[in-house]
């Protein structure tokens, strides 16, 4: 009996142009016939539809995280504590700040800190500690005439300097220069400097220059280490709130924050986190946030929209006063054009001004979240002209002032400012940029200590104890790092068509349903020498970045990377299956990661269910031994080998080829030419991975199943020293568990490719398959 015929009759509905009766929940995605390899594009489009739908649904689903207590102002504030803790974590603002006695005046033997003055105020260059070696810098506008009545932190957009906002240098229209107006009436003002969107200093220690903005350049390694350029800047603002709360200001002195553009974002987050901020003005930032994925990547916050939109952040400020100014936003047209000698690795992203109606819509949503008269919340949206004028309008500033100081009148116009020495904003920017870059590298080095602390509860005393103690880490990895969609898989509804008929095997294209609009597909190779009733092992052979199943499993294609290894294994008697994974079509798949991140998800949140459906279907076939399904992937397929087998029931072993590394250094280090901070893989970074799961820890999630690394000495993805350093931890784990023969590493003198010598032997041994000579 032909087993392939039995397979088709019993388990598969042929999907060809002559068979139009095979029904699928995803059938609307597919024409009646598709050209070969179009399935990858259909897959990407389907995932995009699925994720876009999830983004829209996130607005309603956020309510599950909130337990607001409106019984009193105090109880309402207390009820937000867990939300504030989670918000601080996801924006990377959880470090303990250092107390300080006062702002440091920045001066030298030849220059005073005084850089400007006017009637009733002085302007000083200042610095203040935040944590570790991170400081804030900016300008202090100190009243010299009127008695101090309060304190204000005025946060410019990232592409504005404090000197511009203080009127010391051109750049801001005179009608919007309000900082000195506040000071002349007795308000102490500090204007912190933000990291800007230029790319002057975006060069790695290895000498690679890039067109990434300074903000993106910091974002990339910081994100990997559970920090964020946003969190750093929020912490700088909150350090000032600490000082304002300790300094010789009486309790009656009020504390307010005003921010424009990126400064508006920082003001909104700071006020949401810190109840000591009395009154807040958010200008040129507030809007529905479901398209944050299209903004500059430094706005990407993992898990943000799962719990927080701008309305939810605004509601955290209640019952304190909040003003939203709908105005023209600082606009960003996209990445900078790369300078000579620099690569174009910046992520796409734009900022445009939202309609006034959409801003009002989000304001109304915030009000609806706090529908209780007990709080008596003051939230007002101010239109600057028709919503297209620049931020910091006199109307908005005066509303903020009268809310802060109802018994005091704001100075009617900006006073004259005399500059006493040239401003040094570029020098200050370089200092601030270097501090944050250095802190990301400190965090990278300290990550190993954090991972050891996280894993201190694992029990290596026996395999049984280790397996039991690892369950919590596996759940944590899936839920907090990869991101789990809590959705049942659809019925697989397999559709196949025959691709080729070779002397030793037959090849089929397979398509399965996973979620609505989401499919899994691949190429199944069935050896022809199978006997009736025989069950064989399966090797799932995974392509890398921009790859296709045909690169591994089509006899007409000879790839210099894969060397037809799915075919070679099929010729040795293994059943092989080569899935199409969705890391293909460059920005089309990278944008999927951008859409998934705000939901607390990643591309592997899709890939894991795709593989679970695939393994379940393979295991249901009569000629497959469901206990012997192995995974073997190269490059991005090797990245998959570290993330999918820990989470998919059914994979009995994993082989990582051309990817195993000291992965955290690979993502965060600026010292080597092969690391990711200055490359085009802007989707590669995984939030807080550096403090949780390096590749040794991911391998621990695979243990005690067999695990192997294939490494070419000439493979440019890394260097042997890094690979061996990380693998030594894996070897120690398997030794501690008394199963050292279940793991190995093979080095070969070659480049980034499937070698297929030691790995094939590893598969034969651990899949208990007869020893066959390697096909030439």
List the helices and strands and how they pair.
Elements: H1 3-11, E1 13-14, H2 39-61, H3 73-79, H4 81-90, E2 104-105, E3 114-118, E4 121-131, E5 134-143, E6 150-155, H5 162-165, H6 179-184, E7 187-192, H7 214-224, H8 229-246, E8 254-260, H9 262-273, E9 279-283, H10 304-307, H11 310-317, E10 321-326, H12 356-369, E11 379-383, H13 394-404, E12 418-419, H14 425-454, H15 463-482, E13 495-501, E14 505-515, E15 518-527, E16 536-542, H16 550-553, H17 565-571, E17 575-579, H18 587-596, H19 604-620, E18 624-634, H20 636-643, E19 651-657, H21 663-668, H22 695-702, E20 707-712, H23 720-736, E21 743-748, H24 758-766
Helix pairs in contact: 2-18, 7-14, 8-9, 9-11, 11-12, 22-23
